[in-house]
Amino acid sequence: MSQPLIEIKNLSAAINGKQILKGINLTVCPGEVHAIMGPNGSGKSTLGYVLAGRKGYDVTGGTVTYEGKDLLELPPEDRAREGVFLAFQYPVEIPGVNNTYFLRAAYNELRKHRQQEEVDAVDFLAIVKEKMKLLELPDAMLKRSVNEGFSGGEKKRNEIFQMAVLDPKLAILDETDSGLDIDALRIVAEGVNKLKRPDNAAIVITHYQRLLNYIVPDFVHVLFDGRLIKSGGKELALELEEKGYDWLIGKHGK
Amino acid sequence: MTATKPISDLSNHLAAGESFAASAAGPEWLRTLRRNGLAHFTELGFPTTKLEDWIYTPVTAITKLAFKPATAASAAATAVTAQQLTPFAFPGWTGSRLVFVNGHFAPALSTLPAPQPGVTLTNLAAAIASGDKLVEAHLSRHARVDESGFSALNTAFLVDGAFISLAPNALAAEPVHLLFLAVPSDSANTAQPRNLIVAGANSAAKIVEHYVSLGGAAHFTNAITEIVVGEGANIEHAKFQEENLEAFHIATVQATLARASRFLSHSISSGARLARHNINLVMTGPGVECVMNGLYAVGGKQLVDHHTVADHATPHCASHEFYHGILGGQSRGVFNGKIFVRKDAQKTDAKQTSRNLLLTDTAQVDTKPQLEILADDVKCTHGATVGQLNDEALFYCRTRGIAEVNARRLLTHAFASEIVNRITVEPVREHLEQVLWARLEELIEKK
Ligand SMILES: Nc1ncnc2c1ncn2[C@@H]1O[C@H](COP(=O)(O)OP(=O)(O)O)[C@@H](O)[C@H]1O
Ligand SMILES: [Mg+2]
Description:
The complex is a heterodimer.
Chain A: E1 6-15, E2 18-28, E3 33-37, H1 44-52, E4 57-66, E5 69-70, H2 76-81, E6 84-87, E7 94-98, H3 99-113, H4 121-135, H5 140-143, E8 145-146, H6 152-166, E9 170-174, H7 182-195, E10 201-205, E11 219-224, E12 227-232, H8 235-243, H9 246-252
Helix pairs in contact in A: 4-6, 6-7
Chain B: H1 11-23, H2 28-44, H3 60-64, H4 72-76, E1 97-101, E2 104-105, E3 119-123, H5 124-129, H6 133-138, H7 149-156, E4 162-166, E5 176-182, E6 190-191, E7 194-199, E8 204-213, E9 220-229, E10 234-242, E11 248-257, E12 262-269, E13 274-283, E14 289-298, E15 303-312, E16 318-327, E17 332-341, E18 349-358, E19 364-373, E20 379-387, H8 391-398, H9 404-420, H10 426-446
Parallel strand pairs in B: 1-5, 4-7, 5-8, 6-9, 7-9, 8-10, 9-11, 10-12, 11-13, 12-14, 13-15, 14-16, 15-17, 16-18, 17-19, 18-20
Antiparallel strand pairs in B: 1-2, 3-4
Helix pairs in contact in B: 1-2, 2-7, 8-9, 9-10
The complex binds adenosine-5'-diphosphate and magnesium ion (MG).
């Protein structure tokens, strides 16, 4: 096994004093895809937000080491610049900010961080067009304000589009499958698969098995009540699909 | 309106008004208008904060400013070079521009468009002198002389401003830039332009009224614009107030909108120590579609007040209103949006949003919808927000690698862009972006 990309040890977190994550342990190595499943309210999005550095999500214990660095010390923008990308479950609308402009600003932040030259609007458009083809996105999406008036499915596709352009080392996809019809799901999943490389990794959060038909995980974890209560290979997802969560939860009941 | 007893000393204003009424030239109907204005001013005086419409906007500082109305002669003698106007040009603008110095037309500084049949673009004094019948027919017939003491005062000194008329079906070939330059001096510190725009049936034009100052001395602008939009006509009217931070700016835009006309109003206000904008739209025939779009960006001790009226006097009209405010320092914003749906105005569609972004704890805004709905089959919605930048949006930007300070900048600009983007003339938007972005940078930095 190679050097871990991210190592989460005994991570606990609270929102407004309410303990949501209660000791998460998870190690992800380059080239791996980890699926995190679990019923609504178990803390999946919270984990994503904590890793991305959201205010109000207070880490109350544990450590997160990313490429050998203490991830929790970094402000959100530095985590992003270091290659952590969170695809939001509910992407945020930013009226008045052009989607392409926004993405180029983000792209150039990453380039500056790596001491590379910024790209101008023309060169950026070439980069963007290529990724749009990959994800079968309409050009009109470039001209609109960030997520404003997008349908649920368009928002999710826009997240993956951003991911494709920003090319993160660690992508955390929070329920990217919800709100997508089966065609869109296939396109998004194929996009994710094409972006997969031996040196990057993904944490795919979902509560349906169906996404995992397209993005085949190396590991499946079940999150319940702030803890990973079971881990296994891709067959665990199928087992969950068949039996639901109850048989597991029963064993770990509150 | 009931007259409250004027508290300020009006003697200087009245004396100046009397002497102007006695000496100023013009046809009898105009002299009558002026005398009527003076009579109303005598009765009303300056508004006090006891009046509902002025409750948040004390104008004492204006009443204390020495009253030195600019005369045509003094304006003509004011030395202004074309070069001094460069900062106020719209980037890449090749169109015409009428320049007014202290409210009086300055032909030497102006660029008139190539003559176009059916389109008259001149100054009011010239139109009056030429005996244009439209002037007598419309001047002071739309804006109420007694809307406030300021309206009365403007009318008492009525002499010049812009005059635009469009014959039926005339489509103005290019947008019009009206530049109102205040050049305060020891002898003149008050400009009272009076503008009249008469658009015939099915005509179209885009007009920008642009108020600026040369130098930083205090001055007073008291402006009225009357706009008559004929049946099926399509008018875009933008007003930019970028005067210096010692200036007082009081203005009314009064538009009468006939059947099936379209009217797009913009008010972008970033200058002046105190600015009060009245924007009154009266829909007099069915099928009118009008939009009121506005943005104020202020800081320091500035006060900016918008009082708007969408008067649905007839059925089947739509009025949509979008106002955004960005307030820094200890500035104060006022927004009062009145929607008046008269008894027979069924199927009215009126929508109003007022959103305000406070950059500091000491900035303050009073925003109030004022609905008076006398018809029953109508759709009226309104919403107002006052707050800080959206935390979720800030976080979202940061997760994409954009530093917090830049994310704040981006979102603040975006909030302004939502309004600016409704302006359809590109060079005008570009100008605004430069002016506003510079202002926003100051506001963000000075927080
Ligand atoms: N802002 C918040 N304030 C208080 N509780 C919250 C907040 N956000 C989430 N929670 C709670 O945290 C728990 C986990 O939520 P979440 O991480 O969104 O779950 P999941 O993504 O697995 O559905 C839930 O019980 C939820 O109610
Ligand atoms: Mg969730």
